[in-house]
Design brief:
This protein is an all-alpha fold and 123 residues long. It is 71% helix and 0% strand. Helix 2 crosses helix 4 and helix 4 crosses helix 5.
């Protein structure tokens, strides 16, 4: 009877994140660095993660290497992604203050929070 060539079905060791949820990360950062991050700041973290996941070279490295090798290139990829997202956020910031039509469109979108707040409070 043949043996099992790859125990675990060849999936390799499964990695468990030391920080399971983004809310846990935010709590740790707040405590460790005296920050005052809130749930709304989760979007920033998710944007950075998505930018890395959408990065072609990051995908190639992740699909063809182990986690440790991925981390070697991740720092540079993440740094560039964060800079790119910051520049994009700066454009949004500037547009809000410099372009009345942009501001009006954003205000119209944000006005939808009225119904959401009232709907949440009714629950």
């Amino acid at each position: 009877m043949p043996g099992i060539a790859l125990p675990g079905g060849g999936t390799g060791p499964m990695y468990e994140s030391p920080i399971g949820k983004l809310s846990e990360l935010i709590a740790i950062l707040n405590e460790r660095f005296g920050m005052t991050l809130i749930d709304a700041d989760k979007v920033w973290f998710e944007r950075q993660k998505q930018a890395v996941k959408d990065n072609g070279p990051a995908r190639v490295v992740a699909l063809n290497n182990d986690r440790d090798q991925y981390r070697v290139v991740l720092e540079k990829i993440a740094e560039n992604a964060i800079i790119d997202r910051h520049e994009s956020s700066g454009q949004l910031f500037n547009a809000y203050f410099e372009k009345p039509g942009f501001r009006e469109a954003l205000m119209e979108y944000l006005a939808g929070s009225y119904d959401e707040i009232r709907g949440e409070d009714a629950s």
